[in-house]
Specification:
CATH class: Mainly Beta
Number of domains: 1
Number of strands: 38
Oligomer: single chain
Bound molecules: cobalt (II) ion
Number of helices: 6
Distance between the termini: 61 Å
CATH topology: Methylamine Dehydrogenase, Chain H
CATH architecture: 7 Propeller
Low-confidence stretches: 1-10, 430-447
Amino acid sequence: MTVVSGRTEGLQEPRAPYAGGLESLDREVELASLPVEGRIPSWLRGTLLRNGPARFEVGERGYNHWFDGLAMLHAFSLSGGEVGYRNRFVRSGSYREAEAKGRISRAEFGTDPCFGLFGRVMATFRPPVTDNANINVVRLAEGFAAMTETPLPIRFDPRTLETLGVVNYDDALKGTITTAHPHRDPETGDLYSYLTDFSLTSRYHLYRLAAGSRRRERIASMEVQRPAYMHSFAMTARDLVLAEFPLVVNPVRLLTSGEPFIRNYRWEPGRGTRFQVFDRVSGEHRGTWRGPALFAFHHINAFVDEEGAVVMDLAGYDDPRIIDFLYLESLRRGEPDFPRPTTWRIRLDPGGDGVERRVLSEQNIELPRVNESRVGRPYRYAWGTANRVRGHFTDALVKIDVTTGEASSWYREGCFPGEPVFVPRPQEKTAQGEAPAMDGGAAGSQQDAEDDGVLLSVVLDARASTSFLLVLDAATLSEEARATVPHALPLGFHGAFYGS
Ligand code: CO
């Protein structure tokens, strides 16, 4: 009997209860009608599109990190109380090369291809950039695109999920990495995003992409010595804010180290977090605010308060250890001290460069969403996943009233929900057939409408080895319906609902 690292061979590795959501799903299926329990609201018509990693091995080798897995799109179509489901891999360059060569062929977030010496030298000059668009789904440039953190969004058909090809932007804006979380202004429909261009002098570029356009208009650029890893950024109705967490990279190191992408970043808490604020219209750099060192993947929302200060809410961590816990080996094993995010509110002093930070709610939240009509505006509700049982990753759905910090939750033992997407109930028609005016009617009616709708979340039922689409009343988090897929779906990242 051989003993390897203190464990006896043949004994089963400890396994987290949600680990069934971290296995490869090779099947692509089309199910016309899923069994439904409860009642789907009759007004709920459209498609929930979800994105996430779904293949974690190629040939003999596995990807290292949860963020590396090959992208799969899932579509839940809702109509007349019925729910259909289909799924397809994104036929990205990463996917096609993996299929053709039978091995990992492009550099991902936490995994590099295995190069020989010659391959490594060549890769230094021309690294094979991944287009494995596994993070989000965005309506972009006359269509729908799957996105990751390289600026190579991949268009797909929202009905068939067929891959249509990389989005070709009609401009000369250059960047090495970007965010899969652009913001859409609820009034104009324009998208706002940023690029980091790694070079001898690296730069952040902020840009606007008008609805339906493929031409990105540069709003501002800023030179940066050590670019920060920023999975998302903040937008108010007036500003764009890059929160430079002190997880930073020397771009030369990125090219020459031979280490996977994220392993080149260094945690330098002494820098604090630098909030770079830009005017959304003029591009003017309003200034740099310095706050405590923290790390976050996700901003929740941001707005300008009555005193003209930028206020931003985020799901933050004291340090970036969360990235290490999301390596597949650790995540599948389950860790009792898995970091929990803190729900913070950050306010930038409008008269100086100071930063106030306070805990907005005792309730932790991840994969946060808001009513999309409130993006960049004062708002009241955030919904997201949460951790309730230590070490159980995301095992609850929560709603936080950000004006009071009060929270409510949905929890079922053995169930592991993904990001909840808010879908507003359509405005009631009046007798005249007109939608009621937003500024008329009873005082506070606009405020009350913010949580009037449903939440859609794909939930892993670990005991049954199935997944279901969960429909919750967004106001009360009471269950309205669930539609079950007959097998487990890999845990996903982000998605969007498109009405029909
Ligand atoms: Co994200």
